């Protein structure tokens, strides 16, 4: 675990050093859990958003886009349940003065049992070699069975407490399990309390006209209140979806793990409206579809898993997360939820406006059910960045840090490097830049040795480096270097757009999804 923590610290440092993510307001000592995306980070982030947007709206004829306002009427949040139910169970350690989410402390304890089980299995696999029967070992080994029994008992107790919103029982679980504060190492805990996560502000120019409003904690409600607008103007027929990318805000008290949990973040959400009774069929469809979208990036299928919710939200009848293996364990990057007809029904009730769909095939009106897919852009960014980070020792004993980013998501697609800053090579390199810049985000670099320039491009994940040398002036060929293999080949300049496009074109990713 300590080694993984060290790796994560290096990843965070690398993200800042190479212009991906900066602490916000850093010259004023920063602002907790708020970050800015640098010149490379914003390019990569936009590529992630483009991949999601086009997978939703281009590959599905029945999904359209929306961009709703951040400020919305405050009654929306009463109708959605956020005013009354958007809370986290928090607990403080009196010695460290630090605050934690009680549910996260318990879930981490459950994960420790899983780690113990996996370590027992790994030791046995190493001891028995090819003859090892993992399934049989898990069913029969006494130590494994003991860990499984303790984990399952804790899991059940936790599930009951969360579903009953039993704050006293959550604290008792923490006490009974002997969970200690990771900073102070003590068990001196306060009671568990609920804390609402929404930011409140005022709208209006004078005290008399001011109205309390909230910064939206999710983008979904902007879709629900525009359901009829989109359905009627777009002549949409059930089933259909509305997709949106936008900022959301949550007053996270326990914000941690870099950009994994922030107070200002960005979501990519799609609400898919279906006939009542067909929601579970579509729930399974979107589970498979969204997992395929992640796996198409080629970061390793074994790094993903589904995690069903122990406690369903007040609006849901089914919910699961797609988790990704971060340096600090499997963590949620996307949620798929069957939200039933809760949201549309609530807004109909609180607004007094009829929000229903007339189904011409059934000849009747009804309130559609909804399947939601919700992915955090920042968490997706972090999962890609962590998975791509690699420290390599080369054959000559040198080391390099390289980001093996999916080429379509890389902030810079190619770098053009004149071998020396004379003899007409910079001018020729600039000619190549002028050709490629219309199709790709390119960088020109003539400072330092070509080897150092290669390392700089490796560190930001640039798929290709194009070196211009004396031979280029003679035969219009360049040296094309591959980021991952470091192999070099001589290619004609007029072939460069085709080679780079074939490897970096977003359509190559999208074709994997159909």
From TrEMBL:
Substrate binds at residues 101, 218, 265-269, 372-376. Gene3D superfamilies: 3.30.40.230, Anticodon-binding domain (3.40.50.800), Bira Bifunctional Protein, Domain 2 (3.30.930.10). Transmembrane segments: none annotated. Its EC number is 6.1.1.14. Residues 198-411 form the Aminoacyl-transfer RNA synthetases class-II family profile domain. PROSITE patterns: AA_TRNA_LIGASE_II. This is Glycine--tRNA ligase. It comes from Sodaliphilus pleomorphus.
């Amino acid at each position: 675990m300590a080694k993984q923590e060290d790796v994560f610290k290096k990843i965070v440092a690398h993200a800042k050093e190479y212009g991906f993510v900066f602490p916000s307001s850093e010259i004023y000592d920063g602002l907790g859990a708020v970050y800015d995306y640098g010149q490379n980070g914003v390019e990569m982030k936009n590529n992630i958003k483009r991949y999601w947007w086009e997978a939703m709206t281009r590959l599905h004829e029945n999904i359209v886009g929306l961009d709703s306002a951040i400020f919305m009427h405050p009654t929306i949040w009463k109708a959605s349940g956020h005013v009354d139910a958007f809370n986290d169970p928090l607990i403080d350690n009196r010695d460290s003065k630090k605050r934690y989410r009680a549910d996260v402390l318990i879930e981490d304890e459950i994960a420790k049992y899983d780690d113990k089980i996996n370590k027992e299995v790994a030791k046995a696999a190493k001891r028995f070699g090819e003859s090892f029967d993992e399934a049989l070992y898990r069913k029969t080994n006494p130590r494994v069975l003991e860990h499984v029994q303790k984990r399952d008992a804790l899991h059940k107790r936790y599930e009951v407490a969360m579903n009953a919103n039993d704050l006293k029982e959550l604290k008792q679980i923490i006490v009974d399990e002997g969970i200690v504060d990771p900073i102070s190492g003590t068990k001196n805990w306060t009671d568990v309390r609920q804390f609402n996560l929404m930011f409140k502000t005022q709208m209006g120019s004078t005290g008399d006209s001011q109205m309390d409003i909230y910064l939206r904690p999710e983008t979904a409600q902007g879709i629900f209140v525009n359901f009829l607008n989109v359905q009627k103007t777009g002549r949409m027929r059930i089933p259909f979806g509305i997709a949106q990318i936008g900022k959301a805000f949550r007053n996270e008290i326990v914000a941690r793990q870099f950009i994994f949990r922030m107070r200002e973040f960005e979501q990519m959400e799609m609400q898919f409206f279906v006939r009542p009774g067909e929601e579970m069929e579509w729930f399974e469809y979107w589970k498979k579809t969204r997992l395929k979208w992640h796996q198409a990036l080629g970061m390793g299928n074994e790094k993903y898993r589904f995690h069903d919710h122990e406690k369903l939200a007040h609006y849901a009848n089914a919910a699961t997360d797609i988790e990704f293996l971060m340096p600090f364990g499997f963590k949620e990057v996307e949620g798929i939820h069957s939200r039933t007809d809760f949201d549309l029904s609530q807004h109909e009730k609180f607004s007094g406006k009829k929000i229903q769909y007339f189904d011409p095939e059934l000849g009747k009106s009804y309130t559609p059910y909804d399947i939601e897919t919700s992915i955090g852009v920042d968490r997706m960014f972090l999962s890609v960045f962590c998975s791509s980070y690699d420290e390599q020792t080369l054959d000559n004993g040198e080391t390099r840090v390289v980001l093996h980013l999916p080429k379509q998501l890389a902030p810079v697609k190619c770098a053009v490097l004149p071998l020396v800053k004379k003899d007409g090579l910079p001018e020729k390199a600039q000619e190549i830049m002028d050709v490629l810049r219309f199709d790709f985000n390119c960088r020109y670099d003539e400072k330092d040795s070509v080897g150092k320039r290669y390392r700089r491009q490796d560190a930001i994940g640039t798929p290709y480096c194009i070196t211009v040398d004396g031979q280029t002036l003679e035969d219009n060929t360049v040296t094309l270097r591959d980021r991952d293999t470091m192999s070099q080949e001589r290619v004609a300049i007029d072939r460069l757009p085709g080679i780079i496009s074939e490897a970096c074109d977003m359509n190559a990713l999208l074709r994997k999804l159909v």
